[in-house]
Amino acid sequence: MEGETVSGEDGELARNLGFTEAMTMGGGTMIGAGIFILPGIAAEGAGPASSLSFAIAGIVALLAAISLSELATGMPIAGGSYHYVNRALGSFFGSIVGWGMWTGLMFASAFYMIGFGQYLVEPVPFLDGRGFVVLLGLLGLAFLVGVNYYGTEESSAFQNIMIGSETAVILVFLAIGIFYVDTTNLEPFAPTGPSGIIATTGLVFVTFLGFEIIATVAEEVKNPGRNIPLTMILSVVSVTLLYVVVMIVSTGVVPYADLGDSLVPVSDVAVVTMGTAGVVAIVAAAVIAAISSSNSSILAAARVVFAMGRDNLMNDWLNATHSRFRTPHRAVMATGAITAMLIAAGLQVEEIIALLAEVASFSFLISYALVHVSIVVIRRANPDAYEPDFEIPSLLYPWVPIAGVILSLGIITQMDPVVIAIGCGVVALGVAWYIGYVRHRDVDESLMGEAIVGEPASTGEPSEGYTVVVPVANPETQRDLLRLAAVNAHTHAGEAEPEIVAINVIQVPSQTSLEQNVQFEEERIEAQRQLLENAREAAVDLNVNLRTRAIVGRDIGRTILSVVEEEAADHVLLGWRGKRRKRDFVFGSTIDPVLKRAPCEVSIVDLEKDLIGSSVALAGPGPHAPFAARRAAEFAKLSDSKPTLLNAQQPSDDPDIDPAELGEQMIDDVAAEAGLEAGSYESEVIVVDEVQSAIVDHVETYDTVCAGVSEKSDFSKILYGSIAENVQQQAGGNVVMVRGPYKTNRSVREALVERLAD
């Protein structure tokens, strides 16, 4: 076939996370339970100078964020630090970091949930003792394990609400508390000296783990070269400043010795600055923060296990995905079980909460030290697949990784001997796992050998041309959708060959990493491949250039939008079943965001007949009527016929006004704007008292009806006008709703959000 180019692409992950979403995941997670629990422990360790401990921890985290930003944009694979270390340094160090991150996240989750119990027990007089704290912590953990086991699409939105609520409470707490600071409470500023400040830095570092979540989901972030480094660095800097101010206010309001004896330090400060109402708000925010932070840790832990399984460092049994819920249920249950044992240890170990925090910090400090080493190795090896959109500036390289290693190891040396012993035990566990299991497996080789020499990277360039994006999901209608897209594409043939991009999106819950779904949802992935293979076969028959994209994403509508933007599409054509499932949506949760935000033409097709056949367009006064007329003309070519442009007018009492003449003039205007030449269409005007019912009856004689969507100020009313609605509901043929390129003005809020998401 002359000019035919049919190609397919491997499965890909949807880039749905913009600046706002990534910033929420990183900074929002760090503004978690630690801000309510750590001030007391930190004040006990370093007094008012604990603010410096947070500042130093923030600097260490910032160095790690800079290195991870380059690695995440160059190797956007699930697993974060573990993946980069395993790829650069090999499976020996990969085993150490993998086990270290997994256990570190479990220690962190246990730390958060004991804090959850403390803030619930302290304000209630009849609840007392470690038993109640542990019991409530276990109950909270059981709830989170259940959520992550079954999976809910709403969990991400709920997480954002929780983070926003707790952040608002903290900002109010600081705004009021700053006026109650007594400078005499800040003396002596560093009662434990420099060693106490550094030792406390190791304890509080646990609260800076959230930024790596951005690296873990790097393959899902829009404009990664800008958004990943920007959000990682900005989140660390902003959270560091917030924690420094929290410590200054807390130790300035309540003497550090009293603060160190408190299990609910921020609540004790709120008693002085905000009264009973403030205490209630702080307790509520602390509970929310503990749930939010622990939930994030469980999510991240499951992804680390998946990444290890992908590299053959973990048995697939633990890495399996639930057949119904599509969540990593075994990894979630294993993480929950071990975390529960750590929480239960609180019955025996009075200082368990500080111990949990420090061990988690130890694990991640080791991981980040190895990350800094990895970036040096990867830069030296320069593998073909490594093409970072963000690189550490030449003035800062290699000083950033060098300083990162020195500071990370320096903090570890100042930790409590018990913490160092447990941390070394976790490292030993990783070594033992490597010796007993990993080294006998077929795993990827490290880049250590190639680090001495560098190799150039390869590049590729996309093609240009009129592009139609066609989401396909139903095997029964996909061929007809592609036929409609093909005739539309052929109409716009010019210097560059037009192209159809057929996409299929598999939706996964937030608890499951997108790549994990690709690896383990074999049945659905195979169905997706078959669907797109059928599309490629149809393209051969239709004599059209076709490219296919298999995508895994969390929100189908937003994923389609991201493809439309990436492809710079001129037209997106979607199938529709013609039913509204929820009152909150017009066409449905998939189509609504595309119709509202796609910058190109949009056609929504409800196919009721096997043939497109004869076509008619409603040539009314709406701004999208010309696009409906153009679509009807394109579809008429399939049956080698002319489209009919239909206009309805009501009788007039004015003898100087001829309704039929008005209708003909409107049809001519619509046709001219649509680019239809005279004689290429049939015009028909009906003059009736009841316009809507007459149009519905009249279009029954046609196989396909095209109508423009109505322009309503409220999107919930965009139901393409009452006439078209009745046509769709009552007509027995195909109905195509058409919208022209997006021209509606965005609100200030929408414009800001959209700009930040670029």
TrEMBL record:
Annotated GO CC locations: plasma membrane
Ranges where the UspA domain occurs: 467-605, 623-739
Keywords: Cell membrane, Coiled coil, Membrane, Transmembrane, Transmembrane helix
InterPro entries attached to this UniProt entry: AA/rel_permease1, APC_superfamily, Rossmann-like_a/b/a_fold, UspA
Segment forming the signal sequence: none
Membrane topology designation: Multi-pass membrane protein
GO molecular function: transmembrane transporter activity
TM region(s), chain numbering: 22-43, 49-68, 89-112, 132-151, 163-181, 196-218, 230-257, 269-291, 355-378, 390-412, 418-438
Compartments it resides in: Cell membrane
Principal subcellular localization: membrane
Pfam families: AA_permease_2, Usp
Coiled coil: 511-545
UniProt cross-references to Gene3D superfamilies, sorted A to Z: 3.40.50.12370, Amino acid/polyamine transporter I, HUPs
PANTHER family with a match to the protein in the record: AMINO ACID TRANSPORTER-RELATED, INNER MEMBRANE TRANSPORT PROTEIN YBAT
Protein name: Amino acid transporter
